[in-house]
Design brief:
The protein is of the alpha+beta class and 293 residues long. It is built from nine helices and eight strands. It binds flavin-adenine dinucleotide.
């Protein structure tokens, strides 16, 4: 809930990205300086692709239908083309995604100059329950934001305990910063039937939780049907049971990006499979129903 007076504090700024076939082989990310003073980046993406982004422009459209515009595609292509040996053309774009940043409106004249910091604003009318609104924010600072928010809440409700998030690993991230290769090797030792590409993808996406996903599997066949590009039933079930995936789109685009690697028919088969599991869960029958129960 936002008290009425707070709504004007938000500045909506759209940011869009394009994905094209791999433009370079090395694993580095590149930042390009544009002629307009902005920067954009090109990052290796999902093994076979390059991600190029982002744009920054004020958004006043329909928030339920945010998508990249032809102008943004042209902007990213033109600026990236200044740096690559081969140009990036709009027809090279295989996928794009776009979202709107709800930034704190600090009165900056240009969208790209609006602050990316979060701003907490207390709204404590006399005699009424206080409300703290959070504006803006980034994934990189969400823990700091959460702790700042708790400090505000504790001012009213009393201190509940010390801050603890700084060193707490995220789910599946409970191995050292330089421990990826060791974790990958350990997973392959436990599950020798995994090919290198699949093992790498699973550790990258799920970390130590890949073991939960693979469970007692002793062969690839134990992972169930492959819907394409190494997306097996075991992974789909894991995402439905642990990461709230409901639809094929959730799995293919929001959780795994396997959508870049598989075709329409495979996506339709996945949707049919998930819909069957959803139905049996809803009816409380079948294996999925028992698990959900
Ligand atoms: C273009 C763009 C680029 C960005 N770049 C960066 C970056 O480089 N680095 C960085 O650190 N951060 C970046 N951010 C910011 C970062 O994405 C956000 O700070 C972060 O996603 C906020 O996380 P959240 O979980 O609080 O909210 P969200 O990720 O917005 O999640 C909120 C969820 O709640 C759901 N929801 C909303 N209303 C309801 C409802 N009524 N019922 C049920 N569900 C609901 C939404 O569908 C959504 O899934 C970027 C944001 C954008 C838009």
């Amino acid at each position: 809930m936002v008290h009425k007076g707070a709504a004007h504090n938000v500045r909506l700024v759209q940011g869009s990205h394009i994905v094209v076939a791999k433009k370079f082989d090395d694993p580095r990310a590149y930042f390009f300086q544009n002629r307009d003073g902005r920067i954009i980046f090109a990052i290796p993406y999902e093994q076979d692709f390059t991600l190029i982004g982002t744009t920054d422009r004020d958004f006043d459209g329909d928030l339920s239908d945010v998508r990249i515009s032809p102008e943004e595609i042209a902007y990213l292509c033109a600026n990236a083309s200044e740096y690559f040996a081969e140009p990036v053309r709009p027809e090279d774009v295989v996928w794009a995604y776009s979202a709107v940043r709800p930034l704190f409106d600090d009165g900056a004249s240009k969208a790209q100059e609006a602050t990316r910091d979060y701003v907490l604003r207390e709204d404590a009318p006399a005699g009424k329950a206080p409300l703290v609104n959070s504006f803006g924010g980034k994934i990189t600072t969400y823990r700091r934001l959460a702790e700042s928010m708790l400090e505000k809440i504790e001012a009213v409700l009393g201190r509940r305990g010390p801050a603890w998030t700084a060193d707490a690993p995220l789910p599946g991230g409970d191995f050292g910063v330089h421990g990826f290769e060791a974790e990958l090797g350990a997973l392959r030792a436990t599950y020798p039937f995994l090919d290198e590409g699949l093992a790498y993808r699973l550790v990258r996406l799920y970390g130590t939780r890949a073991r939960k996903l693979l469970g007692p599997a002793k062969s690839v066949a134990d992972l169930g049907r492959d819907f394409g590009a190494g997306l097996h039933e075991a992974e789909v079930r894991y995402l439905m049971e642990n990461e709230w995936a409901m639809t094929a789109e959730d799995v293919l685009w929001r959780r795994t990006k396997r959508g870049l690697h598989i075709g329409k028919d495979e996506a339709a088969a996945l949707e049919a499979y998930m819909s069957g599991l959803r139905d049996s869960t809803a009816a409380g029958v079948g294996e999925a129903g028992r698990r959900a129960g």
